[in-house]
Each structure stands twice: as structure tokens, then as C-alpha cells.
Amino acid sequence: xxxxxxxxxxxxxxxxxxxxxxxxxxxxxxxxxxxxxxxxxxxxxxxxxxxxxxxxxxxxxxxxxxxxxxxxxxxxxxxxxxxxxxxxxxxxxxxxxxxxxxxxxxxxxxxxxxxxxxxxxxxxxxxxxxxxxxxxxxxxxxxxxxxxxxxxxxxxxxxxxxxxxxxxxxxxxxxxxxxxxxxxxxxxxxxxxxxxxxxxxxxxxxxxxxxxxxxxxxxxxxxxxxxxxxxxxxxxxxxxxxxxxxxxxxxxxxxxxxxxxxxxxxxxxxxxxxxxxxxxxxxxxxxxxxxxxxxxxxxxxxxxxxxxxxxxxxxxxxxxxxxxxxxxxxxxxxxxxxxxxxxxxxxxxxxxxxxxxxxxxxxxxxxxxxxxxxxxxxxxxxxxxxxxxxxxxxxxxxxxxxxxxxxxxxxxxxxxxxxxxxxxxxxxxxxxxxx
Length: 435
Prior knowledge:
With about 425 residues, the chain is of the alpha+beta class. It is elongated. It has helices at about 20-35, 70-90, 135-140, 145-160, 185-190, 210-225, 240-250, 275-280, 285-295, 310-315, 360-385; strands at about 5-15, 45-55, 55-65, 95-105, 120-125, 130-135, 165-175, 195, 205, 230-235, 240, 260, 300, 315-320, 325-330, 335, 350-360, 390-395, 415, 420-430, 430-435. A hairpin with a 3-residue loop joins strand 20 (about 420-430) and strand 21 (about 430-435). Mean pLDDT is about 85; it is low at about 395-420 and about 425-435.
């Protein structure tokens, strides 16, 4: 099965279009050979397969493949039809009304029905999926059908990898080394009183000894990496709003792992009096009652520390002489709900880390990454003398754009003639680098 679109719709007219029948026929015939083929390989454009006139409408059926999609084709037609009928026949086009919109797309495996807006029905058939959309002119202009199709194609692609959120390929590893310490480090440190579990899941309270280890690792990173490579320190917010995650691309799908933040509906003490009184009497916090008194989530705790930096450069122009920009943040924790995956101090919900961010042209960004890799190798091999490995990681669909996306949506422009890129790396709980 190939990707196919079938759109049945009509142009709503300001008057009976019958006097313009010959003009409509000629325009549609020409459009099938010109307007609806523009940008597509030969024979791969959209096509008007049926049409007829009504008292206040022009009905038509459009079929297409991947290149000139039916919902784009009808918007092209609206423009030229309005010009042709308005100028000579004084007939206006008041809008596009969709009667049915069906998409067939290839798929090797079945997908469960999606619970998303504008999908009227979804059916798995031999070799693919048949999708019926419930959209109007506004949704077609806003490219809703394309986004739904992209979502489906991402899910189809995920089935090829067993729906894994992340794919990992080993690039290099150091030769095996003898490890004299065989115990679980978390258990050993707890036994010695160096750290204790925090009140929340995946959270730890580090005592003086454990904290000194943290600070030693931090000093190594600062002295051997950040300072030699001239990274400057900044402080990023740790409460991240939806606006920021929409820019960074995280809003595509990090919802299962976010620690959400909901503000109170009001600070009026009288509004909260029953909550306080309930606790004073029962010594229990009435969470269900609190839930009724807080607003909708405005965002969440920092999932990755780099996205808030986008707001620092939003609408800014970056002169050539000021890039690459190289900064880092170590001002606080970031949080992820690692459901089912927490383990000791190795996999936690609350991260202490140094976030490294750099901006520049594509060539500069790659150069910065290479410099960081060299410094990490120096730290791991020459200072810590540890066994380590390097891997290429392809994150899940919601993180692909992430912080390595082009800043076209963030920057109003730049004096450089090359695209400006933002990339982030981090040292989590010490020296675990991921770039």
C-alpha cells in the first residue's frame, strides 16, 4: 500500500456558480496538469477526479499521493478559483467545507487507535492503515493532517524497533580493567552513613563524605574541561513552562516522566482555611481537597536543564564575532519520574549535574563537541583511570528535536550566513557525559 489521500469537499460560493460552469471546467482541467502537479515528480501530483455544481457550492473530489497532498491542493485551488470567478462573474468563495477526508498509509504492523483530536476513525487493514479525519479549512491551513500523519509514521517506525524509546549503539570502549571494589556502592555508602534516602522516590540526601566526592568531581570538570574550553557559568530556571518545552521539542512526548507544577488558584488564606484546619484536626494532608484548589499545570520541574536557555536568546540577533556561545549551569537539580527504573544512586529521579550548552554554526557546534570529547577522554583515561565506553544514542521521537534543533523558532535572525545551532551535553551525578 502506498500513501494515498482522498478528499471530498466543496467550495461555498456567494452565488449560484452555474453561469461559470465552462470557466470552472477549464480551470480544473488545467489545474490537473499544472497547479496540482507543481513540486511533484511526473505523475505524482494531486488530481480532481470528480466535480459538480450546486446552487451555492462547487463540489469536488481530490485524490493524491505523498507529494501534493489533497489538503494542500484544495487550498491552492481556492486561491485561483476565487480570482477567476470573482473577477469575471462576481462570485465569491466563502470557504471550504469538508465532507470526508480519508488517508491510507502503509504499515507492516497493526497500531492501536489513537486518542487524538480530529481522528474520526482508524482501521488496520492488510498492509496498512485507513484513517478518516474530521477537519475543516482552518485545520488544513494549520497543517493538522500532516502532523497527524507524522505522528502515525513515527509510531509505525517505532514498531520496527520493538517500540523502544531509545536505541543504543556502542562506538568504542576501553579494555576491561580489574575492579578491586566488588560491592554495591550505594549499599556500602549507606552502611557507612555517607548518604540516606530522601523522602521522595529516587532522591538521596548526601552526607559530608559523599558531598566531598561530588565537589571533587565538579572541580575536575571545572579545572579540566569548562575553564580550558572557556565555558561561562549561568543560572537557568528549574521550573520550566510549556512555552519552553514547545520550543525545545520536549512537549511532543515527555509527559510520563514530568514532575508537574500546579500553582494555587489563589493565595487568599480563607480559601485554604479548610485545608489547614483538616490537617490540624487529623494530622493528615488532604491531597484530594488540595487537588480541587490548584490550577492546571503550568509546566514542570526541569526535565533537562538546557531548554530554559532558549528564552535567553529568544528574539536576539547573534553577531558572527559573538559565536560560538559556550555556557554551563550547575545551579540546581533536574527531575524525571523514572518509573520502574530507579536503582541506588545510579538511576534516580532527582539529578545533580552540570549542564553544558553551546551555540554556533554547524561547523562550530561540531568543533565544540569534538573538543568536549577530547577533554572527557583525558579525564576518564588520565585522571580517573576508569573503564568506560562511548555510544551513539538515538532518543525517542519526542526528544529528536530537543536541544540540538535549529534555533529558527527562537532567533529573530543572525548576522552569520550559516544556520545557528544549539547543542547541550551534561555531566550527571559527576562525570556521566551525554552529548
